[in-house]
Structures are given as structure tokens and as C-alpha cells.
Amino acid sequence: MNGVGGFSTPPPPPHAAVHPAVQPLSFLLGTWRGEGQGKYPTINSFTYAEELHFSHSPAKPVIAYTQKTWNPSSGQPMHAESGFWRPNPVDGTLQVVIAQSTGLLELQKGTFSAEDNVIKLQSELVGNASKVKEITRIFELVNGELTYVVQMATNITALEPHLKAVLKKL
């Protein structure tokens, strides 16, 4: 017999590395870094460096998300956001809540394909925004790189491409 007081110590219970609901999106988990371009009819075009981080607790069916961008020349911070991604593997839907450093809030709903590694999100609500009316985001894993395109509509513009980036996993 081993253990305290002559009792044997049971082995620890097996823990899943990833919650089953998160498994189809587990390719996102980790830190991604790369560069992107931004444009919009009402602003000058720009480039940015970016880091995304997706983390997960195996006990919860949710992915925590953080994003930060900076000027690639000066290193000055440009933008940051954080939130939560909640997948439903039964029907392939996804709910995403994002708070941006500008004070803007997004509630997005969408779909994901585990076979194609594609995520499509559409804003259900854009809060605390006097001008932004709609945001879409499409993420795709292509040849080991995470790419995304963000489109935005405002009170004076239709849905237009705004951001795109290519990121590599660290």
C-alpha cells in the first residue's frame, strides 16, 4: 500500500486537452502573429503588425480571444480587442462577443466548418458605435496560415472591405 495512512492514492482522473465543444475550432488555439492592411473609403490605407491569442480551459466550452495591433515601423500600439468565442458543434454555429479598445462592442453570430477550417461571422449587434452599423469577419486556415477579412458598414458607407491579414502560429 502506498499513499497517506496506508490508503492507496487513486490516479488523477483523465482530463481532455480540449472541451468537446471547442474541438472543431482547436486549430485556432495558441498565438498567431503577422501583418495586415487596412483601408476604407473614409480613411487613408495603412499597414499593421498583429498578434492574436486564443486560449481555452478544458472545463469550459468557450475560447478566450485577445488581439492587439501596432505600427510595424514605430512599434506604437494601434488597436486592441478581447472577447469570447462560444462554438456549438451540434449545428456548426458560433457566438462571439468582442470588446474593442475604442469602446465599440460586437455581438457576432456565424458558422464554422471543421472540415474546411473556415469561420464566417456576421454582427447581430454593434454597440456603443454612432457610425458603425455592421461588421463581418471571415477567418480561414490555409496552408498553416490564419487569414482573415473584416468588412464594415457605417451610416454613410455600404459593407466594404476594411481589414485583411495573414498570421503564422508561434
From TrEMBL:
Cited SUPFAM superfamilies: Lipocalins
**What Gene3D superfamilies does this protein's entry cite?**
2.40.128.20
Q: Which reaction does it catalyse?
A: peroxynitrite = nitrate
InterPro entries per UniProt? Calycin, Nitrobindin, THAP4-like_heme-bd
Q: Per UniProt, what is one Pfam family of this protein?
A: THAP4_heme-bd
Start and end residues of each THAP4-like heme-binding domain:
22-169
Descriptive protein name: THAP4-like heme-binding domain-containing protein
Which source organism does the UniProt entry give? Tripterygium wilfordii
Q: What is the lineage of its organism?
A: Eukaryota, Viridiplantae, Streptophyta, Embryophyta, Tracheophyta
